[in-house]
Amino acid sequence: MLDRLGWQQPKIPVITVAGTNGKGSVSAYCAAIMAAAGLRVGTFTSPHLRDYRERIRIHDRLVSAVELVAAFETIEAARGEVGLTFFEFNTLAALLVFDSAGLDAWVLEIGMGGRLDAVNVVDSDVAVVVSIGFDHQEYLGATLEAIAREKAGIFRRGRPALLGSREMPPIVEEMARSIGAPLKRLGAEFDYLREDTAWRFRGRLWDLPRLPAPALIGDAQYANAATAIAALEEISARLTIPAAAVAQGLREVRLAGRFQVIASAARDAPTWILDVAHNPAAARVLAGNLRGHPHGGRTLAVCGILSDKDAAGVVAELRDCVDAWWCVSTEGERGRGAAALADAVAALVSAPVEAAESISAGCTAALAYADTKDRILVFGSFHVVGPAIDWLESRDLLPPPALPEYTAAPRAPHVQG
Hints:
Elements: H1 2-5, E1 14-18, H2 23-36, E2 41-44, E3 56-58, E4 61-62, H3 65-79, H4 86-99, E5 105-109, E6 126-129, H5 137-140, H6 144-151, E7 161-163, H7 170-179, E8 183-185, E9 191-195, E10 198-202, E11 207-212, H8 220-234, H9 243-252, E12 260-262, E13 271-275, H10 280-292, E14 299-303, H11 311-318, E15 324-328, H12 338-346, E16 353-356, H13 359-369, E17 375-379, H14 382-394
Parallel strand pairs: 1-5, 1-6, 2-5, 6-7, 7-8, 13-17, 14-15, 14-17, 15-16
Antiparallel strand pairs: 2-3, 3-4, 9-10, 10-11, 12-13
């Protein structure tokens, strides 16, 4: 399809981001920091929470309907007899939109795995693997080594292979070395040090002291932020990214559904926490965040988990953190019914468990049960958090949206060298 479209590899810096968990955070940090440096960045992520256009961002905005439809029409006209999956069509649209947008850099999140992912058609300047955990085993393999091998498929000869975890399966390094991709590992070629309320990044080129805490909540976000900075360090010979922009991007980064805390303006209403954690590793991080942010009341969970996910593993990580559960149905071919999920949860926890027909019904029931000091945790899937945000908005429980940070007209790419 790319040959039919006459597409060529981008001439501006590209960062690809793979991993079981943390991809969205690392991509968001990269984009926010480059935006703070005055650069125009195209960001491709998946899945979306509420609006398909969230997947394709052109710096400070979602792709417009006009841009998206034009890309779709171009693809359809060239497709002929070629069959495309939803994600392949989606990726092609992103590449066409970015090509015509006059951008300075791209940040591309791998959808699943890496080696066979559609995004892997792009030869990136820096390939990041954030973490390795169990997810999508039916496609990627039943062992961590098999999953890691697939994710390491995004590495390229002579271009940095960046590892964002201290606990990578050895096969990741082995694959990077075998193809001649220079290794850049957290804890070796780059690292971070917490210093009271600030922290320090040290990499191959940059030494950045007194950085502000990442705006995204949780201890894991320091590693994610350091990984993003390490990736940006590798393209700094082509793009100007001052230290002040790194600090500003860390303060201003936003990412919905990642331990997103929504405090009601009313004093007599509970706090909401939204998190898309959908596998045991992500649930473990979520549990750590809940423990690290103690609350005066109970934690009430509205939970929906797809049928192809390890619900027992997710619940096991969180059962000691939750005082009552409302299990909700998820829709689609991979959906799981509320009653089936409630039975699975009840077998693992001692707290009360109820089934709710829908996400809105679960949120309504949890809110009715909650006291002023309680917090309501909505988690388990993008397919749960997105509709929950819709429900919160319909009841005026969301804060007003932030104003765009950057609205300048498109201009020529700002590339050095």
